[in-house]
Write a structure and sequence with these properties.
By secondary structure, this protein is α+β, with helices and mostly antiparallel strands. It folds into 3 domains: 43 residues, no CATH class; 142 residues, no CATH class; 120 residues, Yope Regulator, Chain: A. Helix content is 25%, strand content 17%. The chain has 7 helices and 12 strands. The chain has a 6-stranded mixed beta sheet, with helices on one face. The protein has a 6-stranded mixed beta sheet with strand order 7-8-9-11-10-12. Helix 5 packs across helix 7. The N terminus is likely disordered.
């Protein structure tokens, strides 16, 4: 990765003296000492790679309006830590008067590595005074750790969706808090998780004019696009006759396919179609290595690639 390609200043991980021969987490393929550890500023394209919670973290970062989840910390001997889609004031972290520690996902970033930012926010919360908040993670709060060093890599998040932001409050709000709560609640889009066998990190959302299914997929982009192209060529890309594949967006190294849905249907009615599609997709993915794409499937892949955008 050349200097002209490094578009934002960031400190991605540990000091260069810590295990300098390990692979750099930016994904360059270089050793840490020859890449990030050499002092270059980098953006980590896939900051949550290696964690079962990766799709959940991306959903909370990018499009879940009001959601919380307890972090599955390794050997958690300390107090539990709650991850939130967004905290009051878009804070990076806060410690309530009760001592409860919360980290925010939808925050301003000053680093190219969200994983390191979250680890820094957690480090701050562990020692912060009750009733304090951290507006943004900066050099003074960042540590040598990343989220991968702190979480159990095998445990996904159990995300709880909230209809509003009333969980922000622990007591009777004052006038300023009430106004902030009202503003936050006014922009929430109705969102539900689609629960079904083989389905994870899939969410129904009503934008007011359309309903969508947004599904964070854990597969590498090339494999997923090939499988989707195969399904497209077979006429099997839709969830049902009441849906239409709209495209996908990239977020933090993963693809998020999106379908337009019939707004008249309840979110729960999409569980069975999603499960059926998941089975079709798994079958298509399993054959990618053994059976190359046909010419027609390559054309379908090119069409699908034209419906992609990149968020992060």
């Amino acid at each position: 990765m050349g200097r002209k390609q490094r578009t934002r200043a960031a400190t991605a991980v540990a000091d260069a003296g810590e295990n300098p021969r390990r692979p750099c987490p930016c994904g360059s393929g270089k050793r840490y000492k020859n890449c990030h550890g050499a002092g270059d500023d980098v953006i980590v394209i896939r900051p949550f790679e290696g964690l079962a919670a990766e799709p959940d973290l991306i959903a909370m970062r990018e499009f879940l309006p009001s959601a919380t989840a307890e972090l599955p910390l390794r050997g958690s001997d300390g107090d539990p830590v709650t991850l939130a889609s967004v905290l009051p004031g878009a804070s990076a972290a806060l410690v309530r008067d009760t001592g409860e520690q919360l980290l925010g996902m939808q925050v301003q970033t000053r680093s190219g590595d969200l994983s390191a930012d979250l680890a820094g926010a957690l480090s701050w919360a562990r020692t912060a005074e009750a009733g304090s908040s951290l507006p943004v993670v900066g050099p003074s709060t960042r540590t040598s750790e990343r989220l991968q060093d702190l979480l159990d890599p095998e445990i996904p998040l159990e995300v709880t969706l909230h209809r509003d932001f009333s969980w922000w409050l622990t007591g009777e709000p004052d006038a300023e808090e009430s106004a902030a709560l009202e503003r936050a609640n006014s922009v929430i889009l109705p969102t539900d998780r689609v629960d079904a066998p083989g389905v994870r990190a899939a969410y129904w959302v009503d934008t007011g004019t359309k309903a969508h299914l947004r599904w964070v997929r854990p597969e590498p982009e090339d494999r997923l696009m090939a499988a989707l192209a195969r399904l497209s060529e077979r006429g099997q890309l839709e969830l049902s006759e009441d849906s239409k594949y709209a495209g996908s967006f990239r977020a933090h190294g993963l693809l998020v396919p999106v379908w337009d849905l019939d707004r008249e249907m309840h979110s729960s009615e999409w569980a069975e179609p999603a499960a059926t599609f998941a089975a079709r997709l798994d079958e298509a993915l399993s054959g990618i290595d053994d059976e190359p794409l046909t010419v027609a499937e390559h054309r379908a892949r090119d069409v699908l690639a034209g419906k992609q955008i990149t968020l992060r």
